[in-house]
Structure formats: C-alpha cells, structure tokens
Amino acid sequence: MISSSITINAPPAVVREIFLDFPNLSAWHQGIILSCRPLDDSKTGMTLKQGDKTETRLSSMTVVQDIIENTPEVLTTNGPWMGLLTGLKSCLFTSDPSNPNITHFEQRETFTGILSFMMNNPDRFGGYRTKEAFAKINEDLKIKAEQVWQERSV
Quick one: 24 exposed, middle or buried, by C-beta within 10 A (0-12, 13-18, 19+)? Predict the structure, then answer.
C-alpha cells in the first residue's frame, strides 16, 4: 500500500469541496493528474455515488475508475489499467479531534494484478512515483484549501 497524508488548516468540508471540484483541478494542481471528470456529465464530484465512474487523465495514461464510496469522510475508487493492474484508492477527510477546522487528509492506494509488485512498495519505481505524486497533490490541496478557508473566514 502507498499512502501520503498532510494536515490542512481548513475544515474537512472545505477540503473535500475543493478536491472534488474536478473542473477547477488545474487551477490549484499542476502535476501528474491532468484532469478528472465524471463519465456522466450530469454528475459532479460531490454528487458521485457507488457505481458511478470517473475518467482521470494522468500524465502517462487515462484510467476509468468505479466509485466505491463517496461520503463526507472518504472517497474510494477502484480503477483497472489494461488488465495488468488495479488500484483501490481512498482519500480520507478526517477532522482533528481537538479542532474541527483542521483536516487530516490522507491518500492510500493498494494495487493488485500482475504488475502490483512494482507499485505497492514505496521504494520501487512505480510505488515511489505514486507516493511522490500523492505528496504533490497533498501540498497543492493544502495551499488552496487554506487560502479558501482564510478568505471565507474574513
């Protein structure tokens, strides 16, 4: 399993709102994820439910993912790639027990399939790149969420 977490000085609802605002992703993140969108154009990231699908364009591939869970606390997707690899990914939006305006955000992904040995170990090339990408997304999300929260708090 690959994981990366960060503490964000904004409530989980704000962090989740930004994370799931797919049309504006490129406004706050320039990295491995080029775009993400629900396959059903009538849906948004916030309204996706179990069984819905998203398409995520990465710098090296495009992946269609099934939504497994989408609640205020967690977004879980499952995405196969060419029958060789499947990633079960969860994004957790957890409120700090001592301050509801602080979010512990974590991304986790477990890979299965013939190429999973390359991805599940953070010291191997695929796992290292995934962990590095998660950390970049986390940092970018922290900057954007804290900016939005500060603007709303004024």
Answer: exposed
pLDDT, the chain, mean: 94
pTM: 0.94
Q: Using pLDDT thresholds of 50, 70 and 90, give the confidence band for residue 154.
A: confident
Q: State the residue range of the domain holding 104.
A: 2-153
Q: What's the distance, Cα to Cα, between the start and end of the chain in Å?
A: 40
Q: Would you say 129 and 22 are in contact if contact means Cβ atoms under 8 Å apart?
A: no
CB atoms closer than 10 angstroms to residue 98: 6
Bridge partners (DSSP) of residue 66 are 53, 78
Tally of structural domains, the chain? 1
CB 115 within 8 A of CB 84: yes
3-state secondary structure of 133: helix
The residues, ordered by sequence, that sit 6+ positions from 16 with a Cβ below 8 Å of its Cβ are 46, 72, 75, 93
Domain with 73 in it: what CATH number? 3.30.530.20
Q: What is the pLDDT of residues 39-89, one digit of tens each?
A: 999 999 999 999 999 999 988 889 999 999 999 999 999 998 878 899 999
